[in-house]
């Protein structure tokens, strides 16, 4: 009798429908789009920020547009799953390619559409022409975060395009609250690092008094702090300790707004001479774009 009861119990156990394991039962369903493939040149850092490195890939405008089409769905998934409402790219590097205005507009349009702010944008050594200035100025004005560095050297920009970029930086922000100069994590003000050298037609007159005066009037119209003695443009003299991360001539939110390094000697009287206390014993060296 005992043996019969044991056999009956075994049969009952084997006939019982199997339940899914707890881990499998409690596992959430895969999110739509979670299995998308990786995007060429795109890295998600452990901090959650993005990094895009497409330097020296032989890209032209169509190549950039194709990359943007392929990256859009993947980036949309990253934006949707991000803990913060906006993503930040620590670096977007499309330098040393063959990109013109169409490619620049495609790239900046993608970043704006997805609300991705960029810390360092490298577009030097391309074929960017003045027709891209409007898209660049629009991105500067609408970007969800302040650009810390914008590298546009060794392109085909002219003075009008360069002036449009400077005006975009000078006028960026809400009334009475300028975006530039930006404040870093230590609550120190510093200008954006803008590389425009080796654009043959862009250098003339950028550091002169006429453009400085026009930018000052623009900021005054927006109720930005801009007293007569403060400079808005700084040639980043190494003797004053100017680097991409600090300005030896900074006067808080009043300016400078933009660093323009490697643009040659500034016109006499267009830049103040730093005081002895501002000079560094060993001036820092600026690294060229590599």
UniProtKB/TrEMBL annotation:
Source organism of this protein record: Alexandrium monilatum
Protein name (database record): Uncharacterized protein
Location of the region described as Disordered in the Swiss-Prot/TrEMBL record: 270-290
InterPro entries documented for this protein: Leu-rich_rpt, LRR_dom_sf
Domain of life of the native organism: Eukaryota
UniProt cross-references to Pfam families, sorted A to Z: LRR_6
